[in-house]
Each structure stands twice: as structure tokens, then as C-alpha cells.
Amino acid sequence: MSVATARRQLAAVFRKEVRQTIRDRRVMFLLVVAPLLQTVVFGFAVDFDVDRVPTVVVDHDRSDQSRLQARRLLADGTLRRVGDAAGAPEAERALDDGQAAAAVILPPRLAADLATGHPVEVQVILDGTDPNRATVAGGAVSRYFGEVGEALARARLAGAGGTPPPQLRAVPRVEYNPRLASAPYIVPGISGTLLVIVTTLVTAMGLSREREMGTMEQVLVTPIRPLWLLVGKLLPFLVIGCFDVLLLVGAGTWIFAVPIRGNLLVAAVGVLLYLVSTLGVGLFISTLSQNQQQAFLGGFIFMMPAILLSGVMTPIRAMPGWLQLLTYLNPVRHYAEVIRGVLLRGAGFADLWFQLATLAALGIGIMALAAARFRRTLG
After folding, report:
1. Among the ranges 4-18, 25-39, 261-275, which has the highest mean pLDDT value?
2. Residues 213 and 132 in one domain
3. 179-185 long-range contacts, Cβ below 8 Å, gap at least 24?
4. pLDDT over 80 (residue 157)
5. Those residues with Cβ within 8 angstroms of residue 132's Cβ, 6 or more apart along the chain or in another chain
6. pLDDT tens digit sequence for 259-316
7. Is the dihedral of CA 93, 95, 99, 102 positive or negative?
8. Average pLDDT, the chain
9. Cα separations in angstroms, 218 against 204, 211, 213, 222, 292
10. CA–CA separation, 370 vs 79, rounded Å?
């Protein structure tokens, strides 16, 4: 075969593939528009900086000096004041409910002790379920009060006063994860990302493969009702997903010492609602796909933003406000909050009702839409 003949054959095959790809609008969207959208979303979502840590302040002194120190502590933006508490128990409840990740407790007689040179200790209670956030927040408080103490000591010594220089320091106390180990935080979140891969992608590709191979049409000639057909096809993936969760939780507790502090019934409800959502997404993608290639690309396009916008890898509070609102539509976010709340903080139904209700609403909505399209494709 001559070089010219080979070149003509290669050009013919190339033109044929280009025309076939351009004619398929679904593939063109997946290849051109979707990467652009993902680049924009990822650019805003991936932010490893820790700032605006939600913080409650307990001011036992209630003096001008204590209010001044609280304002200055929060001025740089690392900590964000979300409320005040009357005492340490109320502040700890705010951490339990997830409303705050840090609590700063200013002691009584703070102003008087600073004036007389007595030692002053400011307590900082930190939510250790996110080790990186807890480390940054604790470091910011310790650094601030250390600098304030040094400045007051220099001023007192320069004035040659009769009173000794004040001793001011912050005393951190870490809740839920005292060693600030990363595994107890990462492993529960990873279970959500693995489940979305297993259930969504496998469901979408499995149903698309049957339509591509023609086995779906063979089943349709049987007297089985569409509802039971749908349930029968999704139920195995639901069982596999539940088994995967048991496997991951068992491995996490045995290998990585992930604690189990809460009621596992709450976690089981969250898992079931989450799987309904992910299976619904997989079913919906399969109804939009004509072959396995489209199903794979569609599943990939859903999974990447879902994982990055879940708070598993990067903090949601570091994202722009409009993107934080979009994360409420992400079932992976709510599942991660449920499983971490149960395992690490001992949270119950009363603490996680919003996440569970949102998962239920998302699951019912997605599954209803996917089932309607599935019946339409069968018709």
C-alpha cells in the first residue's frame, strides 16, 4: 500500500468519526460544554484555605476590655462570629449541633486580672472532626492572645510600673477528635464518594448496556409490569451499596480507629435515603443515554462536581456564597454530614433532621423524575 493511499484512508476514517461525533448532540455537550462548566465550578470550589470558621463567644467578664479583645480576635476573618453563648455547656451544644466549629470562652475578671498582672487563661473549644480547620482555628486564637500578652508585657515594663506584666494565653480543648487524626475525618466522607461511583455509574452503564444490546426489548415482551421491572433492576445495586457501607465502616473502625459514637439506626436511614438519590441519578442518566459511552461520560460529569461540592475534600464555607447554596442540592454533602455526625459526634435524629429530610426530598424527587422518564422510554 502506498503512502498516498494510506493517507486517503486515514483521512476518510477521520472525517467519518468527526461527522458522527458532531451529529450526536449529547456527545458534543459532554465533550465541549460540560468541561467548560466543570472548570468554572472547580475553580471556585477547590479552596484549601481555612477562614470564616463559625465561632461562638462566651464572655463571662462583659467588660469593655473583653468586648474589645473579642472584636480584635475576629477581625482578621479566620474566625466568624455566629452567636454568643451564656456558658461553656451552651457553647458545646452549638458544636454538637454543627452550628459552630469553635468556641472562645473569655474568663471572669479578664480586665481586672490584666490590670493587676494576674495570669489569664482564655479557653478555646474546637470541633476536631475536621483536623485542619481545628488546627488553624486553635492556632489563630493562641497566636492572637500570645501577641496581646507580649504587647501588654512590653508596655508594662516600659512604663516601669509596680505591677508585674500580665500573663495571657489561650488554652485549646479539642472535642470529638482530640488527637486531630485525619483518618476519622476522611474515611467517613470517602464512603460517600465511593458509593456515588458504585451506584450511580454502574446503574447508568448497566441499564444503557441492556438498551444497547437489545435485552431490554426482550424483557418488555414478558408480562412483567414496568414498576416491578424498575424495582428489580435497582434492588441489587441497593443491596450492594448497603453491603459496601458495612464493609467501609468495619474497615474504618478496625484499620483507622474511626469511632462509632452515635446510633447506627440514624446512619442506616441516611444510607438508604442517600442510595435512593444516587440510584435515581444513575437511572436518570441511563434514560438520557443511548449507549454505554454516553452513560459513562454522563456519570463522570455528575460525580466530579458532586464530590468536590460535598465538603469531603475542601470546606464548603470556603466556597463563594452562590456555590454554597448549590451544595444544598448535592446528596453527597448531606450524606457526609450524616455519617460524620453519627460516627464522630454521636449525633441523633434531632441533630440531623435537616440533612435526613433533605436527602429524602432529593431522593424522592430524583427517583420520581427518573422513573417517569424510564416508563416513557419503555413506551
Report:
1. 261-275
2. no
3. 180/128, 180/131, 180/134, 180/135, 181/131, 181/257, 182/131, 183/252, 183/256, 183/257, 183/258, 184/129, 184/256, 184/257, 184/258, 184/259, 184/343, 184/344, 185/129, 185/130, 185/131, 185/340, 185/344
4. no
5. 50
6. 888 899 999 999 999 999 999 999 899 888 877 877 888 888 888 888 888 888 777 8
7. positive
8. 83
9. 19, 10, 10, 7, 19
10. 42
Asked if residue 162 is part of any domain, the answer here is yes
Domain boundary among 147, 175, 203: 175
Residue that the C-alpha cell 453527597 belongs to: 332
Domain-terminating residue out of 175, 195, 219: 175
Domain extent at residue 200: 182-378
Considering the domain architecture, whether residues 167 and 201 belong to the same structural domain is answered as: no
Mean of pLDDT values over 319-333: 88
Residues 100 and 189 in one domain: no
Question: What's the whole-model pTM score?
Answer: 0.77
Same domain? 293 vs 270: yes
Higher pLDDT, 20 or 82: 82
State how far the Cα of 311 lies from the Cα of 180, in Å rounded to an integer.
18
* pLDDT over threshold 60, residue 102: yes
Examine the domain organization and report whether 111 and 166 are in the same domain: yes
pLDDT band (50, 70, 90) for residue 149:
confident
What are the residues facing 106 on neighbouring strands? 59
Q: Please indicate, yes or no, if residue 42 is contained in any of the structural domains.
A: no
Domain count, the chain: 2
